[in-house]
Amino acid sequence: MLRLFLVVLALLGLSHAGAAQEMTARFGSGATPFLVRSTTDVAIIRPVMERFAALNPEIAITYEQWGSNGLFDQSRAECRDGTPGADAVLSSAVQQMVWLVNAACAQPYRSAETAALPTTRRWRDELWGVTIEPAVIAYNKRLLPVDEVPRSRFALLDALRERPQVFHNRIATYDIAESGLGFLFAYSDSLEATTFGGLLEGFARVDAVATCCSAEIISGVANGRYVMAYNVLGSYVANANEPDVGMILPEDYTLLLSRGYMIPKGAARADIAARLLDYLLGPEAQRLLVQAGLVTEMDDTEPALAVSARRYIALSPTLLVARDANRRTLLLQFWSDTFRQAAFP
Amino acid sequence: MSTGPEPHPKARPVRSLVSRVLGTVFVILLLGGVLVAGSTWWNGQQAARQAYDRILVGAASDIAESIRVQRGAPLVDLPVSAFQLLAQAPEDRIYYAVIGPGGQLVTGVDPDHRITAPARGGAPVRFFDDMLDGEPARFVILTRRFVERDFSGPVDVVVGQTLRARKAMTRDLVIDALLPLALAGIVMIGIAFLVIRSALAPLGALIEDLSHRDPYDLTPMPTERLPRELQVMLGAMNRFMQRLDTQVEAMRNLISDTAHQLRTPVAAIRVHAETAMSDPEEEARGRALDRLALRTRSLGTLLDQLLSRALVIHRTDSMPRTLVDLREIALEIMERDDSAVLAPGAELRLEIGEDPVLVRADAFSLAEAARNLLGNALSHGEAPIVIGAAEEDGQAVLWVQDSGPGPEDQVIARLGARFNRNAGTREQSTGIGLSIVTSVAAAFDGRVEMTRRPDGFRAALIFPMVPDTMREDA
């Protein structure tokens, strides 16, 4: 059944890949056009962009919301052809951003704000992580009492083993073949611990659902279709504004993603892109981003996440491995093999 | 103080000694610095290249290790460790590709971007330089050969990296090495400045002294506590000034002597001339004219002597000394017929040996001195008169002897003074003549000796003999 689901989603994905941007928003009405391409929902980032437009009245911002793969293909094509495209690119698929920077598709910029970033959140002064978003376990508060909520992956494994009936077909996670973000998290998990294999087997045993799109997963948790969702981006959970959906930062380790900001080599208004970057890293925008759920202050979570449990997905050339074709094939193979073995024992 | 020509108006300003030496030291240090910097840079580059080449090889080996054969085709489980290794150069872009035996790409950072490696050589690990997206980069190609049932052949792993970290490392190494060197250079220039200044300080004092010196002041400058080189220079200058002083003194003496010597005879001539003019008697006028003629002749002799003395003083001071045989001087005096004028018919004899009697002196001055001795003997002594030159007790002697008793003791005692005539003495005086003799003796490190002998009175000029070893360079 899962395979059928995957096939359907794959077809949907293919049809989707040909499309350009999903949505376009405009901020400000100045004389200078400025194009931002991003994977971030317009609805989430709107306050920040509005404020930036207000601060810079001479600019007319066009904000295009893209799927991560489409945005990557578009950026790579523009980089190769040398045609001017976006003035700034902001993507959650940081392995793709690292690839673009590695292919010399970005231009450098340096300021006090960028220098203040930790080394995990910048590379070559060409790629900067502007947000901090944890990969969380979302759960339905009505279906899962507080004391039964697993606070770590080990607890989750135990719960899957002890009470399979509760979770049967009611655990959701990203389909890593379809979702760039899901693949990145799965890849990071596979590097992080041996729990990854066990977790996949556990998911397969309870017939977990690998599906697409944060919004669907979260609404599924909210309406009780799923008891729990693994490795959902915390910012989406926070923004879904569903009172019934709870959020856990796994205590063994929590993956922390910083969306990558890049100024393409062919950017017509690199100066404004740099200004936007400095603004995004500045205290005002960071406060707005915290409100939007795009920046999670780890010390403010309840309970506070131990420093040793924080796993930043560092912006470094190591992420090139995540985009390697062989490596991807192997991980997908491992993923589908595990699910298939469990599905057809 | 400078005796050289005035600097041309368009010529560059004359640089001081300190700035010249310091400039040279600076240029030497700068050249050394450039050489050291070059070699340091080269070393740093080599070190960085080695260090990061090892990282490249490590990463390539990691990747090569991770290749496995699956269903008859190579498959790479790209190891993260390889990229963590490459991330030791955190700012550098990376290239990697795994290429199968047929040249087909197994996996790579960008399937559309192929770096073509140079032709396969014998070595299993080969490095090469190429551009990576417009930036210079260093690559390594490493070959792993597979011999499996379903797959065999070489699989190439190409790993490359841009050069930022290498350049940064080179720069750091160079700066670390050059900073102390630059500091040392500055300190050395400082020390050189102090040393040069202290070494040239006496020169500065000398310049100060010279620039404030009265041009008429010919006293010697103090040479004590000066460096040897400066002492030589200053000694030469002092000698020069001393000679100038002597010349000036001699000139002054000559003028005053001449004035003194000429005043009396000229006055006497005037008196005789006036007498001759005014005396009405023919006979008395004739006598006065006779006296006038005598006086005039005597004045001529006096002038000769004065000029001769001036010439001798000048020559002894300025002419280079040569080897002179005293016998030749004696011979020359004999052959000149002065004696015939002074004392016609006087008996003259020459007494010389067979060996040369060599002295280092001026032949003309010696001849003048000898002529004066002979003149004195002819005027005041008694015939026969003997002229001789010989070596006596290791000294060279040129002598004139007459058969008379000689002058009084008190006259002998006063001999050699500049002039010892009083107003009452005759014009044909021995005074100037003897002063020439003593001057010549003194000028050539000799002396005058007057001795009474059983057979007469002898006046001798005694000089040190020239040693045999020095006769060759005559």
TrEMBL record, chain A:
Looking up Gene3D superfamilies in the UniProt record yields: Periplasmic binding protein-like II (3.40.190.10)
The record's keywords, sorted A to Z, are: Signal
Keyword Signal set for record: yes
Name the SUPFAM superfamilies for this protein.
Answer: Periplasmic binding protein-like II
Q: Name one GO cellular component term.
A: outer membrane-bounded periplasmic space
Q: So which residues are the signal peptide here?
A: 1-19
In Pfam terms, one family for this protein is SBP_bac_1
Protein name, UniProt field: Iron(III) transport system substrate-binding protein
Name the lineage: Bacteria, Pseudomonadati, Pseudomonadota, Alphaproteobacteria, Rhodobacterales
Automatic annotation (TrEMBL), chain B:
Q: What is its EC number?
A: 2.7.13.3
- Which keywords, in A-to-Z order, does the entry hold? Kinase, Membrane, Phosphoprotein, Transferase, Transmembrane, Transmembrane helix, Two-component regulatory system
Q: Where is the HAMP domain?
A: 197-249
Catalytic reactions on record: ATP + protein L-histidine = ADP + protein N-phospho-L-histidine
Q: Where are the bilayer-spanning segments? A: 20-42, 173-196
**UniProt subcellular location:** Membrane
GO CC annotations?
A: plasma membrane
Q: Which domain of life is it from?
A: Bacteria
Against InterPro entries, the record matches this protein to:
2CSK_N, HAMP_dom, HATPase_C_sf, HATPase_dom, His_kinase_dom, HisK_dim/P_dom, HisK_dim/P_sf, TCS_sensor_his_kinase
Q: What is the protein named?
A: histidine kinase
